Amino acid sequence: MDSFTAITIAVFLPFVLAGILPAVAKLLKDKIGWYASATALLSLLMVAQVAPEIIHGETIQGTIEWLPSMGINLSFYADGLSIMFGFIVSGIGVIIMSYSNGYMSTKEDLPRYYQQLLFFMGSMLGMVFSANTIQLFIFWELTSITSFMLIGYWRNRPMSVYGATKSLLITASGGLFMLAGFLVLHAITGTFDIPTILHNESIREALQNHHLFIYALILIFIGAASKSAQGPFYIWLPNAMEAPTPVSAFLHSATMVKAGIYLIARIHPMFSGTEAWFILVSGVGIFTMLLAGFLAFRQTDIKGILAYSTISQLAYLMTMYGYTTHEEPGIGVAAATFHLLNHATFKACLFLVAGIVAHETATRDITKMGGLRKEMPITFIVATIGALSMAGIPPLNGFLSKEMFYEASVEMGHLLGGPYTILIPALAVLGGVFTFAYSIKLIDGIFLGKRPTKGLPEHIHDPSMVMLAPAIFLAGLIILFGLVPSIPVHNFIEPTVSGIILEEAHLHVKLWHGFTTSLMMTIATFILGILIYTQYDRIAEWQNRFNAMFPWISVNYYYDGAVNNAKDVTFKFSSRMQPGPVKNYVIAVLLLTLAMFAIPAMMLGTNLIPQNLNFDVPLYEALIFLFMIVAALGAALLPRYLPAIIALSGLGYLVALLFIYLQAPDLALTQVLVETLSTIIFLLALVKIPQKFKEHIPTTTLARDLIISVAVSVMIFILLINATQGIVAPFESLSYYFIEKSLALAGGHNIVNVIIVDFRGYDTLGEISVLCLAALGVYNLIHSRGEDE
Amino acid sequence: MNNTLLSLTIAILFGIGTFLILRRDIVRVIIGLGVLSHAVNLLIVSTGVFSGTKVPIITDDGGHGAAEATGSIFTDSLSQGILAPIIEAGHHVDYVDPLVQALVLTAIVISLATTAFILILAYRIHEEYGTTDIRELRRLWG
């Protein structure tokens, strides 16, 4: 199997197998989770098959044509970056779906749960392997939609629905900004193809010098920031914690929220090296890192702490990818990429632990916990490894990448010079201090200290291996990556970094690298972290007081306001636009039409009635006109329904007769048939509607309606005599074409028929559809009576 | 088609139809829609572009066939496909305009469909609410 096929299978296999999952679920019953894990494993194997080539420095590209005329194809591109994401997505996928077998109760709607997880996994894989911006956008929004459904998995809980709606509104609309950004990018570069831009230096140079550059960057960055919960968009992630914990671990810490980071890394070669990139990406990153790290203090829900920590850690990644200068565009790329991988391991591990703890203690409130180390020793060890890695304690992998973060910050500060030499490393350390504090809080709050006397179940114990094994596996990876960093660095980081900075990268990551500046910063982080931790509860309390005092200093305040007000505003708007009976709208439309006619007519002046009026018609035609008017008046004035309808159908037959004089035999024929049918329908319907209501028209209403009617009459008359007498010049007509081509192209003598069934055949198809819909509507209306009648 | 009396008749039908759709009784409104659709159909047919008087059916009687009669009217080469032909104004064609007839033929059939639908709608409204007075219905809906 060649590599392109392998990637295509890895992307589409989850979709196909998820499609048939409900059928398989009937066979496997409660064991359906293992089927989903097996699917993820197959995708993982497909990705793994491609990996050796990538590690050797090659890239893979292939296309299946879709809309070649617009340059939009189904095309996949694999380099180090996509392969690393491919591994994270499918690998964590296997772990999460196995874990879910223990976490999800068999009473839950398992087929729906696993189906959506697989759909998500497929979308995510499709996104990271997309070689085409439009295709990337489509998979991107698919991940938003599957995330929406998974957050709202418990459909009956209002908070789930709130969280799901919030995430969809923010991430999906962010995706639209991204699409706009891609279109601007296309306007600049003339291509939707990502590798073309990546591998063509002249295109990239032209892009950076283009006056639309900044707009493309800002639009795409909004997409990335909304997906990765950066800046003001962070608010959706804490509410997304309403999802089942495995979903949070998978989507909202390890994979989906990293889509924005992926996008930043993907467009890094195109946009980096500019001041705008540094200010936007690193600026928003540093801001979010500090804010989210600080706000984590007041969270009492374990998953809430983890959510804020995820936002803060994602902001680390943003910051590092944002470090750039013109000479050296990728200062933080290696550090960011390594930390990205490490974060996927330790954060997924911590979420799994949170799931275990919540599963065993039936609460997620950290204030009700404590002292669980004796009852859950294995969970305690796993959690400690995860949390210490997040805090950056050696010899775990988090220590290594945080050192690299500090190193990159020092370098960036040094290159900028001035006050930044101190400022940027200082802010980085501050971010690290917050991380350290809430990491320790997780361990201390759950496992250390005293067991509270009440609020916890009596017997708490480690869960089954189904739930424990995935967490232990991740903890093992944390230690392994920490002790032998060359494994991930050689296999994942170097190919990825080469793909981003577009030159061969060789990294030397060692556990011990002497007393460097970054080691000093790490030590400073620990000391400050411990100091802050002693004040942890006081800071949280102060945050709560501050929040209560200034509720309007919060993004959520404005989000809720906007969403709730939207309902009221649209309601007010529509009730103002549509105040009353339909009749008013009809009058409004008629008056507007009359005005549109009257204003130009008045400007034209006197020539409204042409001189050469032609009253020369045969007597029988004049008689038909007379009868038509009489019939129409009858339909209008006869008080009872039945005579009025007979008058109306009389009018219809007279129209048919008139069509013959107008040289339209087909119309006459159709009119006769249709009139017959519609008379029958009228009579059938009116037999059932007794005439109880008789409208008494007040004089003012009568006068108003008569004036409108007469005005309409006059307008039509003036328009018609002008149109039919050539005062309005005849324009070029399509009709010549039909007369000319009817016999030649369609072989038909009756031109009208040829137009209907041949030249304008689709119109006729539409007409038939209207008839079908009307028939269905009639049928359903008749059958829509309530059961009791 | 220069025929003032026909135009006058159509205009009067429009006026009557307009008056009817402003009524409160649903059945009257439906009748008004019927009158209006007749008027619209006649209007479209009467505004055909040609001054010819023949029924638009090509007969095989020699020189009067459409293909020959109009064979030389195209002045550009793009007209072989989907583009409309360019033709000098006032060119004489034997037939009345077939295009408006085709349009109206579709319209007649569709007006049957809509008439049937709204009639059944009126019938069901009467069945549910016991009235065909629009104002009373609004009161009942609140």
TrEMBL record, chain A:
What sequence ranges are listed for the domain NADH-Ubiquinone oxidoreductase (complex I) chain 5 N-terminal?
67-114
Keyword Transport in record: yes
How does the protein's chain sit in the membrane according to the entry?
Multi-pass membrane protein
Provide a GO biological process annotation. monoatomic ion transport
Broad class of where this protein is predominantly found: membrane
Which keywords has UniProt assigned to this entry?
A: Antiport, Cell membrane, Ion transport, Membrane, Transmembrane, Transmembrane helix, Transport
Q: Which residues form the MrpA C-terminal/MbhD domain?
A: 626-691
Q: Where are the transmembrane segments?
A: 6-25, 32-51, 76-101, 113-131, 168-192, 212-237, 277-297, 304-324, 330-357, 378-400, 420-443, 464-484, 511-533, 585-605, 617-638, 645-662, 668-686, 706-728
**Keyword Transmembrane helix attached:** yes
Give the protein name, as stated in the record: DUF4040 domain-containing protein
State the organism named in the record: Methanolobus vulcani
For this protein's source organism, the top of the classification is: Archaea, Methanobacteriati, Methanobacteriota, Stenosarchaea group, Methanomicrobia
TrEMBL record, chain B:
- Membrane topology type, per the record? Multi-pass membrane protein
Transmembrane feature ranges = 6-22, 29-50, 99-123
Q: Does the keyword Oxidoreductase apply?
A: no
Q: Which residues form a coiled coil?
A: none
**Which cellular component, as a GO term, is one annotated location?**
plasma membrane
- Where does the protein principally reside? membrane
Keyword entries, A-Z: Cell membrane, Membrane, Transmembrane, Transmembrane helix
- Source taxon at top rank: Archaea
Compartments where located: Cell membrane
InterPro entries, per database record: CPA3_antiporter_subunitC (IPR050601), NUOK/Mnh_C1-like (IPR039428)
Entry protein name: Cation:proton antiporter
Its source organism is: Methanolobus vulcani
